[in-house]
Amino acid sequence: MYIVTAEEMYEIDRYAIEKGGIEGKILMENAGSQVAQQLTQTFTKREKMAVLVGSGNNGGDGFVIARYLAEKGFDVTVFQLVADEKIKGDAAFHKHLWLNTSHPLYQITEPLELKQHLCAYDIIIDAILGIGVLGEIREPIRSFINVINQSGLVKVAIDIPSGLPANEGIHVDKAIKADLTYIIDAPKTTVFLEDTSRYYGKWQVMNIGIPDAAHQSCNPNHLWRKKDVLASFPKRDLYAHKGSNGKGMVIGGQALMPGSILLSARAALRSGAGLITVATVRENIPIVASQCVEATYHLLEGFSGGFQSRNREAFQQMDAIAFGMGIGRQNATMLRELLESTTCPVLIDADGLYHWKDLLRSQVKRDAPTVITPHFGEMAMLTDRSVAELKQNPFSISRQFAQQHQVYVVLKGKNTIITAPDGEQIVSDQGNAGLAKGGTGDVLSGILLTMLMQHQNVLIALANGCYLHGTSAEYLVEEKHSEIDLLATDVIEGLSQVFRTLS
């Protein structure tokens, strides 16, 4: 599934019309009919529906929706909130078809008038403003939105809640807070931003017959789904052995934080790694070994003494390495030598990111992939930006950072944004609030370590790892746990069920 900006959606529509040979009024018909079909399955004929239309394609969709609902016997009325001359082109064509049905159409000019009418209805279908909103919402639409939000009725938005921008980085002035949004063709960027996603309510994407070539023409971001995992997940060979399934290492765990490295190691093994070595200080080895008997161990004298030759030899035997879980923020020189002397993928997480920031100015160069897995606070530290700015612009800031430093960025959150050094991006929206616990990031690092060893494509490896992590939490909360009591160790054990669904 694709994720698009407003500009990309315009280009997709243009391609479908000019090169795909699909007339705009047919696309509008497809969109409206698909939404109407979903509405008839969601609501009953006892509920009265008010379709509020504006100008542009969104208003045209509203006329089509109303026509199909009326044909199915629903009690539906259209309220036009703009002047007649603003209904043009394909929207005017579908307005004419609605008028031919002899069902009512009321033109509303005053907010109080709309408020009085809505008292007789149960459901508002919002087809007022589309994806082109950029700034301040002008009157009378601004007051209409206030009336709708204060109505207490069920609010269903078409494509995007009116007043909400489609793109990141745009201030939300005034927007409808929908209970349900039927998105046309592809989710827009603001579906996945913390401050704007709440306006959508529950959402569902409507396929309206736009050819895939139209989407590929503008190279949009991807939303990772189970079908993508099934198509890309490596199958285990009949003659596989522990070496062929990846030999990895997790480095970290100062004396006061043995749990971090333990969680990463167990997650890597449960994810299917052939061999995992835990590199940590002496005090941690008995603790970790007592709960992770399948791992082997490499003794570190500390994290600030650089590489001893025995360390370098051990690290260079690995297929991938994860560094930083529970390592602390004290000055450490190990990371530079690790990056410069190894030819395998290195994943940097947790406090390792603080050590890595010290290396950014010196621009450590390496041919093998480097992966960083920050949450918003850590990304703010790395980019010298505020968390608020990051939450408004996560896609563009992640892309800029990944391209500038030639790293893979896994920006963790409710919607995790995975960015490649060339700027390609994938979003993983699996998971739930149960993952808002200490240790779940360490589990993700262990899963990603295994995926890096078993996939040829790094971006797909990271996307599949995020899918496994989030889906494990979803299954556990559905069947056994709540979002309150779910622990990081539970997520590790839940991986078994996820893998069964992929076999």
Ordered list of secondary-structure elements with their pairings:
Elements: E1 2-3, H1 6-18, H2 24-42, E2 49-53, H3 56-71, E3 76-80, H4 89-99, E4 105-107, H5 111-118, E5 123-127, H6 141-149, E6 154-158, E7 180-184, E8 202-206, H7 212-216, E9 221-223, H8 226-232, E10 247-251, H9 258-270, E11 275-281, H10 285-291, E12 296-300, H11 309-315, E13 320-323, H12 334-341, E14 346-348, H13 352-360, E15 370-372, H14 376-383, H15 387-392, H16 394-405, E16 408-411, E17 416-419, E18 425-428, H17 440-454, H18 458-479, H19 488-502
Parallel strand pairs: 2-3, 2-5, 3-4, 5-6, 6-7, 7-8, 9-18, 10-11, 10-13, 11-12, 13-14, 14-15, 15-16
Antiparallel strand pairs: 1-9, 16-17, 17-18
Helix pairs in contact: 2-3, 2-4, 3-4, 5-6, 8-18, 9-10, 9-17, 9-19, 17-18, 17-19, 18-19
